[in-house]
Amino acid sequence: THQPLSYKESCFGLTEEHEKTYVLIRYLRTWNDAQTYCRQHYKDLPIIESAEDNANVQASWIGLIDDPKSWKGTMGNDVNSWIWSATGDTSRIGYRNWDLLQPDNLFGTEFCVMMESDGMWEDYPCRDTFHFVCYQGKKNLC
Fold this sequence. Notes:
Blueprint: E1 2-10, E2 17-29, H1 31-41, H2 51-56, E3 60-66, E4 82-84, E5 110-115, E6 121-125, E7 130-140
Antiparallel strand pairs: 1-2, 2-7, 3-4, 3-5, 5-6
Organism: Acanthochromis polyacanthus
Keywords: Disulfide bond
Pfam family, one: Lectin_C
């Protein structure tokens, strides 16, 4: 089953609004399978650009993925290695909501991001299965 989620977001510097629409997919999928599903049926996994985005997309895979070649040493990482799957870019706004001590790339296998039920982000192995949210689009109400 699919459950639509939507909310309004202000246009940049304007008083009019955009409405971002997400669809909760209640299938358990790996990150790659979730991304494929979203790209086939909607647009992509969600990009989280604000606390409001974060509040509206909880407990699911999100569209953030790490480049394993960017990890520096055993416990460090390159902050610019985390990119959004929909754009292939790092965050333009710089919003992050990592849980304490995250990302940690535990056992060198955690390159995908799951948003926990409290809205905090944790890196997980991409082969783990979770529910996911697809970004359906943005209605331009401006």
